[in-house]
Each structure stands twice: as structure tokens, then as C-alpha cells.
Design the sequence.
């Protein structure tokens, strides 16, 4: 069964390192993996110490993955990428490295896998502790910093404006968060299990390409203003290429396939709820409809209305 513990906030300052070590020892014991205690504590100490020295508060720790492959995640509020050591894993990369690089190099020596990823306005460093030191240091997976550009891939093409009306703020926030988590899990699956799940690479590439072009538009000024002002709905105008109808029709199909991956526990991300499915069907469907020349159709919250009728 997947593990999905809520994030645990750490105290600010140096005491966070001791707190994190106690926490990781505790969760390893709770899931019956005492064989991981020593290496998990060593790796956690390095990651959290570096978050204290080079990151920003707040710092949180979280346990995900499975009992067989538990994944420890440390998040801090700095979006600066980690300073990695040499690209060649065969090199002795414990020598003459900057502090952050030394920490990750040490983590690589006590884990099955590790990585770092941009996570909104912060970063996430994760690792899967090893029961015994691996024969070779684990090669890290660094994701997200190649997506910083907000330049659209279709910037020089003819475009149309898709007008999204009465967008529910909470559901849009949830869609963006779920999409980010799904992309992350697909990328990790594509990297770690390419031979077993070759379709994961195709899914990952397609989701990432669409996210690059549209994520910052969905979560832009209109949504941020609505959140700050406490509005329940907002209007969002999105610039899209003329083939947006085909792109988003394909995206709807791929989300169904991704849900199947989630339900089969190939991904840690949960499959979408019926409400999320209905909202995203409307959201992506507006690109299909308006790309074909139809007028905007506001969100009507049909799912919640049916729930209200079913449970008065």
C-alpha cells in the first residue's frame, strides 16, 4: 500500500536537524523497516542540514512511497536549484565539493535513489534509504528547473483566446496541484522504470509540454487575485495555439490513462475524484469547444448540485 503521510513542519534553526533525525527514525520504525534506520538517519541529516544552510524556512518533512521503497521528502521555501557535484557518477565526487554538493554526494552513498525538484516557490529533495550501502552511489534525478521559462512554445504561431468563465478557484487550485504531482510521478517513473513502463515517458513528455505552455496562464494573475480577495469563482483568459482543440482532446485521453496508473499503484498520486474529473472535463473541453468556434460555456458546478440532491 502507498504511504502518504502529511507533511511535518520542522522548527526553525539548527534544532530542525535533530528533530528531523528523530522523525525519520520514528517513521521507519512505524512501518517496520528498522533495517533502514541508520542510513535513513544519515541521509536525512545531510538533506536537512543543507536546507537549513542554503534553503529557507519553513522546512517540512514527509514520508511517501511504499513500505518496500519508502521515500523521504524534505521541502524548503527556496526555489534555488541544488549545486550538484560532477555529472560522472564514477568520479570521486566526495572531494573538493561545495557544501551542498557534499551533502548530496553523501546522500547518494546511503540511498537507493534520490533527487531534487522545483516545487512551486520552493524545492523538494527526496531520497529512498538503502538497507545497506549500494555498490555504486545512486545517481540523482533533478527536475523542474528546465521549466522556468514562461515563453510559450507557440509564441510565433497564430493563436486564439480561450475564455474560461466562472472558474471555481478551489477546484482550479486543486487541478494545478494534482497536475504538478502527476507530472512529477510520471517523470520519476519514466526515469526509474523506462523499460518496464515505456508509456510513462510519452505521458511525461506530453504533460510537461502542456504544463510549460499553460500552467502559468491557469495559475496567473486572475487566479492569484481571486485567492487574495477570497472570491469563489473567477474568469481566466488563456492564449492558445490554433490546434489547442486537438491538444486538449488528447490530454483528456491521457488523464484517463494516468488515472489507471494511479489506481494500479504504479504512481503515488491518487486517481482523480469524480468532482475533479467533471471539472477537468469542462476545463479542457472549453479548449476543444472554443477551438472549434463555439462560445464560452461557464462552469455550472453540476457535480456538487447532484451531490446535494443525493444527500439533502
Sequence:
Amino acid at each position: 500500500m502507498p504511504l502518504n503521510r502529511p507533511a511535518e513542519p520542522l522548527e526553525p534553526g539548527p534544532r530542525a536537524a535533530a528533530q528531523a533525525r528523530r522523525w525519520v527514525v520514528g517513521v521507519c520504525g512505524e512501518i517496520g523497516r528498522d533495517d533502514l534506520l541508520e542510513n535513513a538517519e544519515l541521509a536525512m541529516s545531510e538533506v536537512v542540514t543543507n536546507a537549513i544552510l542554503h534553503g529557507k524556512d519553513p522546512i517540512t518533512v514527509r514520508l511517501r512511497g511504499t513500505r518496500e521503497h519508502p521515500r523521504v521528502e524534505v521541502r524548503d521555501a527556496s526555489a534555488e536549484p541544488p549545486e550538484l557535484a560532477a555529472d560522472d557518477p564514477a568520479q570521486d565526487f566526495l572531494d573538493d565539493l561545495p557544501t551542498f554538493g557534499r551533502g548530496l554526494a553523501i546522500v547518494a552513498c546511503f540511498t537507493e535513489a534520490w533527487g531534487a525538484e522545483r516545487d512551486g516557490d520552493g524545492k523538494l529533495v527526496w531520497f529512498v534509504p538503502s538497507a545497506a550501502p549500494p555498490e555504486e552511489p545512486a545517481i540523482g534525478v533533478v527536475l523542474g528547473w528546465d521549466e522556468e521559462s514562461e515563453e510559450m512554445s507557440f509564441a510565433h504561431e497564430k493563436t486564439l483566446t480561450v475564455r474560461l468563465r466562472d472558474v471555481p478557484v478551489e477546484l482550479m487550485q486543486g487541478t494545478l496541484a494534482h497536475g504538478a504531482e502527476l507530472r512529477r510521478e510520471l517523470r520519476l517513473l519514466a526515469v526509474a522504470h523506462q523499460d518496464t513502463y515505456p508509456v510513462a515517458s510519452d505521458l511525461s513528455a506530453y504533460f510537461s509540454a502542456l504544463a510549460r505552455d499553460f500552467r502559468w496562464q491557469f495559475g496567473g494573475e486572475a487566479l492569484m487575485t481571486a485567492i487574495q480577495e477570497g472570491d469563489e469563482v473567477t474568469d481566466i483568459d488563456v492564449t492558445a495555439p490554433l490546434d489547442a482543440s486537438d491538444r486538449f482532446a488528447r490530454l483528456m485521453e491521457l488523464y484517463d490513462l494516468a488515472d489507471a496508473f494511479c489506481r494500479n499503484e504504479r504512481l503515488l498520486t491518487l486517481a482523480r475524484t469524480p468532482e475533479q474529473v467533471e471539472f477537468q472535463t469542462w476545463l479542457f473541453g472549453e479548449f476543444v469547444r472554443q477551438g472549434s468556434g463555439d462560445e464560452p460555456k461557464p462552469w455550472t458546478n453540476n457535480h456538487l448540485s447532484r451531490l446535494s440532491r443525493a444527500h439533502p
Q: What stands out?
A: The chain is about 45% helix and 20% strand. The chain has two domains: 2-144, 159-310.
